[in-house]
Input
Amino acid sequence: MGGYIVRRSLLSIPLLLVISFLTFALSHLSPLDPAEAVLQAQGVPRITEELIAATKAELGMDRPFLVRYADWLVSSLKLDFGSSYVTGKPVWSLLGPAFANTLKLTLISVVAIIVMSIALGVLCALREGKWTDKSVRGVSFLLTAMPSYWLAALLIWYFSVKLDWLPTSGMDSYLSYVLPVIVLTINYAGIYFRVVRSSMLSQLNEDYVLYGRACGLPERNITMRLLRNSMQVAVSVFGMAIPILLGSTVVVENVFAWPGLGTLTVNAILGRDFPIIQAYVLILAAAFVLFNTVSDVINAALNPKLRKEL
Amino acid sequence: MSKTWSTGLIAFIVSIVVLAGCSSGGKEGTGGASDSGGGADPVQELVYASAKDINDMNPHLYPGSMPAQGIVYESLVENTKDGIRPLLAESWDISEDGTVYTFHLRKDVTFHDGEPFNAEAVKLNIEAVLRNAEKHTWIKLSAKIKEVTAAGEHTVELKLTEPYYPALVEMSMTRPFVFISPKDFIGGETKDGVSGYHGTGPYKLAEHKTEQYAVFEANEHYWGGAPKIRKITSKVLPAGETTYLALQKGEVNFVFTDDRGADSIDVEAMNQLASSGKYQVVRSEPMNTKMIVANSSRADSPVSETAVREAIWHAVDRETISKSIFSGTETAAETLFSSNVNYADVKLEHRSYDLDAARKLLEDAGWSLESGEVRTKAGSPLSMKLYYDVNSSSQKTQAELIQSTVKKIGMQLELIGEESSSIANRRSTGDYDLLFNQTWGLAYDPQSTIAAFASETSYYHTTSGIARAEELYRKIDEVMVSRDEASRQALYADILTIVHEEAVFIPLTNGSVTVVAPAGLQGIAFKQTQFELPFERMYFE
Amino acid sequence: MNIFRNVWKDKLAFLSMSVVAAIVIVGLFAPVFAPHDPNEANMELRFASASWEYWLGNDHLGRCILSRIIYGIRPSVLWVFVALAASAAIGAAVGFLAGYFRGRTDAVLMRICDVMLSFPGYVMSLAVVGILGAGLDNILIAFVLMKWAWFARVIRTSVMQYAEADYVRFSRAIGTGHIAIMAKHVVPVSLPDIAVASSSAFGSMILQISGFSFLGLGIQAPHAEWGMMLNEAREVMFSRPGLMLAPGLAIVIVVSAVNFLSDALQTALDPKLMKSGKKRQEQAAAASARLEGREVA
Amino acid sequence: MAANVLEVSHLHIWDSHTGRTIVPDSSFQVKEGGCLAIVGESGSGKSVTCRAVMRLNKNGVRHSGDVLFKGVNLGELPEKEMRKWRGKRLCMIMQNGMRAFDPSRVIGAQCRETLAQHYDWSRSDIEAAVIGAMERVMLKEPASIMNKHPHQLSGGMLQRVMIALAIALEPDLIIADEPTTALDAISQYEVVEQLLRLREDLGCSMIFVSHDLGVVRKVADEVMVMKDGEIVEKGTSEAIFSEARHPYTRYLVGSKQALSRHFNRIMGGEAVAHR
Output
């Protein structure tokens, strides 16, 4: 097992290198000269050739591409992603708090998603083909088909305006979490509960269920067995939910004015603040790789067959 | 072993996540700004909605929010309705030849950090700005200052390389010639950032949570007397409808037209708020003119033809725009400057909304409608690009309306929404056919706006393609140095006539600054620019 | 063809199919179905409510909302479909090569896919749009760039099953060319899998692209697009909430129809897969793999 | 004469989804202390019949007819009561030990869970009972087996764990659904031995499902042959093996004869296996 973890982790290193390179190269695909982008982003009213040249030298942009890449990579490892073009502040000082805010939203949502999908998935699997199963699936289909911003708007309209129970936006108190979490949960639980349901169903025909019943075990115990075993499929899926959600809260953050990564990045994109975009992409891609590795390792732990493949 | 291990892992992850959730929730509950919303009790506090974060408050650079910088920092003089008035300088003398400005500073001013505001501080600040001159080329004064000297504890001398008539106006602008405590300089400079944001203004920055809010507290030692409004919070609310809700619920209690000229809530919503009795809506007198700028120098585009520009002018239904899009809050503008602007009361022929006239103009200019819906001339279609600020819904609506009307005269407009900074860039590089813009406001009109006609960063590309460009630039140069009122008036009349005849600035409406404030707020006033508001004069009864 | 017969039998699936087909036809022949010019402004009808002439009322420029919804099908559904088809085609090509030839080809191609898949798709689309600039075309490009690898993965898995089938081995043994084998034996049998994979990604792509338009990164005015219409409606959301209804429902209807259809396709394929418990478990794993394609906007 | 512990009459089993009949109409009895073998090819309805007795068929599969267990009609028993009877009075032994246990928990936990369901014993009593039962089925080091996951044990061992569990539960009727099919010859032998001992020790009755006539001959008193859901022949073991009337039975006996010989050889070589 230890060997597997080492091998799997080693595999992700070249992957991370490729990702970091692409991320870095990405900003050079822009039709806009980075130095010009810096000046524009700073809102300098007049941009001259000399100013561009001076800015280039100042930012070290006159050095060869690969040198800059290496430099950026090394400092990135120390969470030093350079300075924002727009504000001149270190990128991490902007990204860090935003990341924390998005992480809070994401983690709470993931918990809600997990709880909801397990509850619904188990319910539907145990009542497969019955009215409950059909209606839950039908409703979840409709809910997942709703654009999140539309759903958010409806919820704001009802809970914040009509009932005046919850704040409309921002991140001021516990209550601020309620609506964004609900929107994310509805959108994702509708998908994830299907995974739980189908993996429960795949377990339902297993002999251990029959044997358990034949031994006179109550349904509660049987359900626990089912749950424990179907979770093995679900655990890797849920593991990936965290990075997926981290990267997909953009629209929800936009609607709820959540001071998180999505808001920061959309602004960075509109303001062509490349260091922030780079850091954002790098961090999320790294999170993806990390969680992928972890979920592979977990899978391997659960299923010894997989270990040999590597 | 692996099975129990996995179960344990799930439990572990879940518990971590739950813990994280709880702890974060707890923190938010105690440390948040939830109590900052205006309640029923009229506390002396304003929370205004802002589409963007206040950003870097360094007053010698440009990313910061202008309304925020305006209450923290001050300039030596102030541009008011009645001309240039004292601010940090009590008085000033200008030498005979117009090259030496001597400012006598107020003696009772300190920076927010307690540092004295004196000649030395002024010198350090202006010199720091000048050392970063390449970023300030738009403000001509920055290239004309030869030397700053402290002639005494409270006397500063500004030596110019040549006389420059708008010098005081440029000294009055929100940036860059404003003053920050020299203690906040990093290595004697401000161009690479500052360590604090201590100005001399009526408010000081107390707390800033990026992308969330910024809190400004009243400066108790303000030389003009401590302001009555004790606390001003700038809350980031990116979307219009959220702002409306937040106003309704009291999460914010103040909204104003932002520095880009965009209102965060639409007129209808404002009226609803006003009719609820909780809010009042206050509008300034017309401050500027919103317009479409045509790039006359773009030879390969139809927009370089006067007839085409005139046709567009005729195809804009200003009355409808004013009535429907702005619900009458902005009036139709027939000329670049409304007649209440200095020197702008010039007799110019109005081009009314008249599609037939537009068609005739195009027909006469050789643009014929042969087949399809778009006119052509020598094989090329009558098609242009119109850029608008993606964050301004009214610009977008106007653009769509205009696009739909010009279609009737056989003209095709392609609409492109971009960030305001990108549009500013297009204006200075000449990479556009048509774009939305506005004049700079009462403090700057007409002199700064007209000076900008010749400026490469501004409207050079707009004006350089017209037949009488040389004459125009010559007259602009003359008017800047002319010291005789009558000839100045004549020159301005000529200039305005030329750009009007060439139809390069197609006016739309006269814009104003709108404020939505709690019903009980008194003393709501405006400055001469659309970029700032005098919060220090406001109070609750 | 059996699959399609099964889908036919399922009433809900039949309904979904009809809805999707109707929408596609209406979108393709938008000029025929739309009662008005979608871009014609008429300020006198600004925010007018539904009437006999304008069934769904008028928007902030007095344009016919129904016509805009109908024309909006093109970017919101049809162009998304084109992007989907393009990424599925690229993915299928790569998947076929990798799954059929195995060995080194497979390893190299899958490594590339790994790299592509290790980027969070939504984040990357956002970044690509940010760098190339806003616009529907750039979003579609970003989607094709980000999605093909996922298709390649799914299709490879499906091809691998069939490429090892006896008849394929037999064909190989008697010296039939690779291309002939693929065309004759591999492509036809994996088409249903491609259909299932594409249909399951379709709904989420529609959602995501309308989400981009909603953020103002998508299609440019005045062209009608559902996400864009919602964005426009959002500004008057609380004074005229009705405007949010039509485009929102249009999205919900299309996406749920597509999802139901995808589900029906999957179940139609199931009898083959569901016979043994073991296969079913594999299916659950496959479902979870598919899930990544179904990120939500 | 011995009473019947189980009397099944007019059992009709069908799939409610498709309406297909699986078992049209079968009736049979199991004598007190006797062993009835159900023989037939896979898909002939053997397992479905057993599950119908336990009332454990899948959702879609329904049955009608009377199942009398010691005079009580099981079909009329409330589900709660029925659950108490399962395991305690009617015990099942499954074909595949590997899959009969929850793969994610250790054997001991599962045994304890079952016993705790039926006996009001303390944890240590249960432990002792399980260990005792395991020892009786010749499982070495029961304590360490209790701490192992199913995949760490062999099929034969798991089969014997199931038998041990049956011993601890002391049921009136054991239903062994192809308990030897998945095993290699030596494990088969051991398991059959244990089953025989189980009957001797507990004096319980048994339904023994198999398609392996060699094993059946060794274990069963009576044999029932099923084909396509119908009982084609029923009789004592000797009668079936010596003078089968139905052609299908004769075919089965004939075709299995060759294979059985091989099995018998091993059965005869008891001494070798024991060492």
